[in-house]
């Protein structure tokens, strides 16, 4: 925990490598929406601890060791949340299964994985319906945060903005349990939006602009959001956003947003991380790679994995060692107090 | 035309300061959609040359002189295109009026303004219907480019991606007349998307990802698009886009995109322009400010207008004087050959 050897905490990892049985079960569930006779039971899904171990050791854990990261905040595969599929019951069963798997991974690898919950959102359904799953994950499974999808329709954006009272039941529970939310969409079913190349990044940008337009943090001064993928377009256009807030007579973004929103470092090249760390105050930056995720290849320009974001954080001239400690560990502990408590209970 | 004194050509300006009579006429037209008796005639709109002159001299031309830019490629106000309103006839009448006004401005200020056309797009209507207006603007009004809205629905994204054959009639005419298109959406009527803070930037990101997914430029090797607002999120996430193209087995982006797409400099702070000019080859960067546009204030951090982008282009350490000439003039002449011809005919 010293500043020279920070814990490297990746606040954004998904279980993208779950055993194939999970996907097969989901496909059966989707078939069961139209043909109830085909609907599988939860108990039909059988994944052993050995299978879970193998899927992690050969993938995320191997890369964490290679890259030198210690802990991943681990949530169900984002693109598979697919909240647009089926109704609340379909989402509810699916979320429970996915969250249980991440919980089991965290039990099998207590030093390396800490669970973050997906919610059983469904388009047009009151978000309050998500609270039982959310509470179970926090209280029984030790989840330290949640992923909140601002567009459960999957690219049609039919829900109200994040500043709308529609979402307040979730926010009230987040405040009660002192857990942050990563604002993270799922698969796009709109042909205009490529899931990881357009929908994800657009959602990040959209969320930030919604938060600029509104005054959500007046109602919830302790609410905390992580905007993934380096905040979408926002840091690159920070002057635009500062200027738009100014036209709207909002306070400076340092006041209006930065007490409550945080950016991860899922930006897959050095100039992007250099900009992020130049423009956004270091207190608002959390280390993350989204490994193993959207971009799995090796960058021919560097010979390293695109998503090995630790290399960029190490190499940027914008951070001192003390600031790197903040990005890797200090800020993450502050934004996720339940993670901090868990680490302290482990003597870390 | 020497490199030491380039013409400063702003490739992205809209007529945001048109006389109030224009907006009044449009409001009447919108009322006329529901109440045909209220529908105004085109001839009801009367704007004198003096009114046009005044609206330009007090605004764009004043700021161009203050900031030291020479020429603006000038198109109708983007947020007022509002292609989602009414049917093709409504859009067609409106586009004709707006394009005529920009043409008149270009006639009144032939040294400073060169027109770029909006199209009479309408959701669900074949883009081929836009061709008569497009041809009139190019052949009779001397327009050197067009603005193409990839989402005429205004934030619901109901049209197919830009790589779809749906759009090919427009592309065929663009190639025939050798005019580029700026990919520019209009007002968002989706409450999730703030028009200039989310919808514009998302559309830029979306367009680039569509072009990565497809192979449009195999069919149209000479087609040229300008992606405004610095390319949305793309340059900030250039590693992500290079990596996604790689996963899709596409050629390097230098091959796959950069012979055909160009980024403007509408990025309203120094770190953004520094990133753009570091990541994107200089041949693909065109000077622009979108003045007078979305962000009209003065940045308290610099004491200058946010949208005075020439300051950032001047100040960046990433460009030599020869490269600045490219950004200000050389590239714009190359991407807009009809502008180049017009300037040459003026001895410039």
> Roughly how many Å apart are the termini of chain A?
7 Å
- Average pLDDT of chain A, rounded to a whole number, is 97
CATH C-level name of chain A: Alpha Beta
Largest interface: A-B, 57 and 57 residues
Q: Give me the side-by-side strand order of the main sheet of chain A.
A: 4-5-6-7-8
CATH architecture of chain A: Alpha-Beta Barrel
Please describe what this structure looks like:
The structure is a homodimer. Chain A is α/β, with parallel strands linked by helices and about 350 residues long. Chain A has a single domain, classed as Metal-dependent hydrolases (TIM Barrel, Alpha-Beta Barrel). Helix content of chain A is about 45%, strand content about 10%. A five-stranded parallel sheet of chain A has the order 4-5-6-7-8. Chain A has a three-stranded parallel sheet with strand order 1-2-3. In chain A, helix 12 links the parallel strand 7 and strand 8. In chain A, helix 2 packs across helix 5 and helix 14 packs across helix 15. Chain A is globular. The N and C termini of chain A lie close together (about 5 Å). The model of chain A has no long low-confidence stretch (mean pLDDT about 95). Chains A and B meet through helix 8, helix 10 and helix 12 of A and helix 8, helix 10 and helix 12 of B.
Can you give keywords for this protein?
4-oxalomesaconate hydratase (chains A, B); 348 residues; ACMSD (chains A, B); homodimer; 3-stranded parallel sheet; Amidohydro-rel (chains A, B); alpha/beta; 5-stranded parallel sheet
